[in-house]
């Protein structure tokens, strides 16, 4: 009698934006069980160390290769966690794993693969200042190595003209350091200069920095790869607070009534 | 010497979409400390019972009154948790609390108020089927008691025309049971009939039901108040799987290259 190897599996998880206090218990349990972690080194570093667990750390720019590697390990019987920061479903590894399956070996469609939700960067950024995502909103990645820059600009200006709150991911890269400037030029053509802008860097981590400013005044030199930028809608409000307390920001749930009701 | 009462505080939290496995440790810790829970009864019911904690449960339609009640309790020295389902910052109580402060007593601006992120319904829905939110996306509430229906339809069709993935919250209500039908009529005018649609009901809860269908074929009678509807973009793909396994759905991270690369 031959002993069959245990079937492998692949679970796509997100650590949340930084502290373990934002990692779901489901994700923590998966990290405690997995034999192999596959992910960008900075995200794998957020996972509590565990004896015997193999960490396959990779560079930031190789999502599909990383996904294939995870699938190969699972197909070989390993218990794999593919690790994203934030929510794996929002500009992260879940889509890369699905794409790798779609284009990959037929046998991968039989694998036990699952995706597990987490807290994404825009949610932590929003919570840190109040409730800027409280109205209809969009999330747009400025990463132009995956889509034409014209598409990015068209989506941005369309969403801005329809008065969505907008969260921008991947606002800067080494390859295109000026794209956030170009994006803001496009936004300034369709939104008022006093539109609220939040520059939320590394929220929840030791190097957190929160700036509440406006479309006209935002200092875009402060935006880096760890920054989530949130642009309010036309009704987003700043609540000033006394004695040097940081202001709160929120987008009213209602449209067209915030002034009338004041 | 007078003993001053301890200062109160108010923390806005979200339970996640259902199971405790999706509630962050931060939120669980807040629930374990709070003297008072304020929230819609169905969400308060998700919080583990605790001796001595007072639960102020309310109806679904009184967000601002509920927020004011929480602020009054905090101003009186209580340790208040205002409880949302999902993420409190996404169509939930964080914006209501901020609005109540903005329109309320000046002293409330000195209160210790904070918002804590959670997993929202669309994220759980997306994870359950793969990665449909893997590209640029919008979240739109169909609740028309807070904004004119024309605004809802304009945002929907604008976002659809710009090829965003779209997550719809509050797709049905007793007051307007036909609005999801009207929304789909508008979407069908700008998107192809074979656009992928996901009807994700009560994800993570015992009565979960997941349907992967298309814009042409979606049975909207199955949509209720517990359903999150996700409409794919023009490149969202369904991965068929063998032997009766449920299909996976994902939106490629790249634009305009998914066919070329196949």
Automatic annotation (TrEMBL), chains A, B:
Pathway: Cofactor biosynthesis; adenosylcobalamin biosynthesis. One of its GO terms (molecular function) is precorrin-3B C17-methyltransferase activity. It is an enzyme of class 2 (transferase). InterPro entries: 4pyrrol_Mease, 4pyrrol_Methylase_sf, 4pyrrole_Mease_sub1, 4pyrrole_Mease_sub2, Cbl_synth_CobJ/CibH_dom, Precorrin_MeTrfase. GO terms for biological process: cobalamin biosynthetic process; methylation. Residues 10-218 form the Tetrapyrrole methylase domain. Gene3D superfamilies: Cobalt-precorrin-4 Transmethylase, Domain 1, Methyltransferase, Cobalt-precorrin-4 Transmethylase, Domain 2. Keywords: Cobalamin biosynthesis, Methyltransferase, S-adenosyl-L-methionine, Transferase. Pfam families: TP_methylase. Its EC number is 2.1.1.131. SUPFAM superfamilies: Tetrapyrrole methylase (SSF53790). PANTHER family: COBALT-FACTOR III C(17)-METHYLTRANSFERASE-RELATED. NCBIfam families: cobJ_cbiH. This is Precorrin-3B C(17)-methyltransferase. The lineage of its organism: Bacteria, Pseudomonadati, Pseudomonadota, Alphaproteobacteria, Hyphomicrobiales.
